[in-house]
Design brief:
homodimer, alpha/beta, Aminopeptidase, Glucose Oxidase, domain 1, 2 domains, eleven-stranded mixed beta sheet, 15 helices, 35% helix
């Protein structure tokens, strides 16, 4: 999972306008949601009420109970991290992951499995070293941000220009940063929703160019993470066109504490903090990855697609267990439960394991272009680790809200609360939702500890609790089944 | 802190024999301890009862209260890790640490401060890389054990011979390990006392030679640590004389989990696990470090010494915050409180910051030789991180137990329980206690999380809670003051 801020739905879009016609006073309890949504429909629509029938609801209960007894998802992510491990887009690991996914989905018995080529430009990390040279020699644990250019071979040795956050850098019209290494010290707040990451991440994406505009030689920031581990958090950065690209790194939080002490404590004032930084990297490498797709064809409306996704690639530093092996495993296991139920879903159920979510969204863009004219009943994605699902949200037209309430009622026994109709379904699915106006469903996971490990070497299997994974699969199976059986379309008929 | 098992008191020693004459039924409450110790004395000794007087006890209360209001200890460790950082014996950081300590102790106003040269043979870590080459290519996070020899330049690529623990290796009389990398997978149990480390650490110290005896090319083990971080735990190993020295590394726990899955899961049986390992290192480097000593001369018995210590060196991977910057700070701050009280202690109070505890005990050995004929009233050490003190223990002659009970009573308000008379006062002090039969006092810290960070890059300042450090200093100040004022000698008159 990359950019929560990228999930924000543009206020101008058609779906938001549609949602705004609904009554604003949705309550979070399922019963009230149902009642209110019925009232909403009565107010805007003369259609007779259409709801899911008892057979579908009973099937949801069976799927839920089966999921809570199954460790298939854990076995899948365990297999992926053990047999493939790190798999950044375009790498040998990425190719292994595609082969793994195709073989695994076929072995699970999905009737249609395919890999769709995604051309991309890969970025490859090289060796990186940093240490303070003044006022005291100290090693510095850091890692290059994704897409960072390399330093000259001999490295860069320069004074640190300290800024508390990106706003402070942007507000600086002096020449203080010129010839220095710009350093941003913003801390990431812990939260269930990942909002702290959303607040901090702009420093990573915009910081290098803001620094370069001010004449900086390089850019560094406090890792965007909630941990206190001596491991730096990578993640994509980007360079503004026309601005010089400068090397960009993230420093581990304990090392960031050291730089903060030296920069801020009165006893060290007047003693410049200097850092030597050398890093190798290579970008723009022509490569091909693949979106891996499995389908269960729909029985009565095969032309309508329920798309549930995750991303197959990972950053190179960890094993890609929580980001996003867990998501791959959750949506695959949920679809497998539907497959094994023997009942044919009305609409086509499609699992998409996207290529290169982390560093360019190439898989999503490719999917968006290829399937732009296919009617998507809804899109969903699991890409926020392996924490418990605590909330269910939708972004559908008002007529579908009674069905959404029925789904919420079946999720409630899993400890999942009903949210609103402003779902942000994940980075890839959110991209598709925004681009094409496709409806979306969201199962919000507890991400309280996600940013302790996200984009670090610590993204390993031991961070996943198999029991929490069962709850996720149960939620996905219930949601996918019931939403896919909905007698009401989730999107407007005139959606592109 | 290095070797809990090294703290075990030989059953044959004089002090144990002496302690065994005491009543065995010590209760843990202070009142009962006092009563029972009085009975014990009555049984073995006709001397009149001698106890600490009210002035000394009142002074202890004042010291305790002052310590609980002071952040001096945190400021000291913060200064050490910020201005020096890693300081393995013989390194430039070690020399900086000695200079830092001398300057700091002088600035604190101790009337006598000196650095005593300690010649030693240093070991220096070099670059190290490892990855699995079969059955799946995977990076492996590991680090060389202290004293490890290097691999050939091209590295070693060999099959892993998996053993669940050291006992399994020792029991193997087959040729299974020959030509392979012996791998020991023993996990470290979490405990307050560090007993889990004590059980696991023999694999680190004895493993390489046990492997070499069986023809192994190299040795690796699961990190001796209770964490799930992608950081390996170093620590000294040693080679038996006459046995070939082979490269020896510790693998991070998540990587150890990976190796365990590949070695143990039925689906991977018949597929050898192979690892490529390359590491550089250099041992036997002639160097000089120093024990740094500060003293407050005794008023009425200056020839008797109260020795409280910690070690100034640290492993190279972290900042040496919990191991043992915290101990340096705690004993120094406690002595400073005594110094500032204006009251002259009866006996000489000596703070010793030992050289090279981690990889050879050179500082302790040097101290032991230099001061072997000086009468030590007791020795103590702080070298178990920055957790709260939960227990007070002694190893003194029976006649001193009523005074020990008085001290325990003054420690009780800090949440500290009375233990027994079998104290193990820390690695350096324990060495001196065993060698010379010197009496000892121990303040046992809660080490539940100590082995999450011990000997890793994660040994950084953020792992220290300043409030817990205050409690430690309070305990040390109370203990040092009262024990130093004791009207009763803690050791036998005829101790060497």
């Amino acid at each position: 999972m990359q950019e929560p801020q990228a999930l924000l739905f543009p206020a101008s879009s058609r779906l938001v306008a549609e949602a705004s016609r609904q009554r604003p006073s949705f309550d979070r309890t399922v019963r009230q949601l149902l009642l209110l949504s019925l009232m909403a429909i009565g107010a805007v629509n003369a259609e007779p009420l259409r709801l899911l029938g008892p057979a579908d609801l009973e099937q949801a209960v069976r799927l839920r109970e089966q999921a809570l007894q199954s460790d298939l998802a854990f076995e899948l992510v365990e297999s992926l991290v053990t047999e493939v491990g790190p798999r950044s887009a375009g790498s040998a690991g990425d190719a292994s992951a595609v082969a793994w996914a195709v073989a695994k989905l076929k072995a699970l018995g999905f009737p249609e499995v395919r890999a769709e080529a995604v051309p991309l430009r890969a970025w490859q990390r090289g060796d990186a070293h940093a240490h303070l040279t003044a006022p005291f020699p100290q090693p510095v644990v850091m890692t290059a941000l994704g897409n960072s250019v390399a330093t000259p071979k001999e490295g860069i040795n320069a004074e640190i220009a300290y800024y508390s956050d990106l706003a402070a850098l942007k507000a600086d019209s002096s020449d203080r940063a010129s010839g220095k290494i710009v350093y941003i010290d913003q801390k990431t707040e812990r939260s269930r929703t990942g909002s702290g990451y959303g607040k901090a991440v702009a420093a990573r994406t915009e910081g290098p160019s803001e620094a370069a505009k001010r004449g900086a030689l390089a850019f560094a920031l406090r890792s965007i993470g909630t941990d206190h581990d001596r491991l730096a958090h990578t993640g994509a950065t980007s360079y503004q066109e026309g601005i010089r690209a400068i090397p960009a790194v993230a420093v581990s939080n304990p090392d960031a504490d050291l730089i903060a002490r030296l920069s801020l404590q009165p006893r060290y004032q007047g003693r410049p903090v200097k850092m030597h930084l050398s890093l190798a990297s290579e970008g723009g490498i022509a490569a091909t990855s693949h979106n891996v797709i499995a389908e269960i064809p729909g029985s009565s409306a095969p032309e309508e697609v329920v798309m549930i996704g995750a991303h197959l690639d990972s950053w190179d530093l960890g094993q890609g267990a929580i980001d996003d092996g867990a998501g791959v495993a959750i949506v695959t296991a949920a679809a497998k439960l539907v497959l094994d139920s023997g009942l044919k879903p009305r609409r086509t159920l499609r699992v998409v394991l996207f290529a290169n979510e982390e560093n360019g969204f190439d898989g999503t863009k490719s999917y968006a272009a290829k399937y732009r004219n296919q009617r998507h009943h809804f899109v969903g994605e699991s890409d926020f680790g392996a924490g418990l699902v605590w909330r269910f949200q939708s972004r559908v037209r008002a007529e579908a809200l009674p069905v959404v309430a029925q789904i919420a009622a079946q999720l409630a026994p899993l400890g999942i609360a009903a949210g609103d109709n402003q779902a942000n379904p994940g980075p890839d699915a959110g991209y598709l939702m925004r681009l094409h106006g496709w409806p979306a469903l969201e199962l919000s996971q507890d991400g309280s500890d996600y940013f302790d490990w996200h984009h670090t070497a610590n993204d390993t299997l031991d961070k996943i609790d198999p029991l929490k994974l069962r709850q996720n699969v149960a939620a996905w199976a219930v949601m996918v089944w019931l939403a896919g059986q909905s007698p009401v379309a989730f999107g407007s008929m005139d959606l592109k």
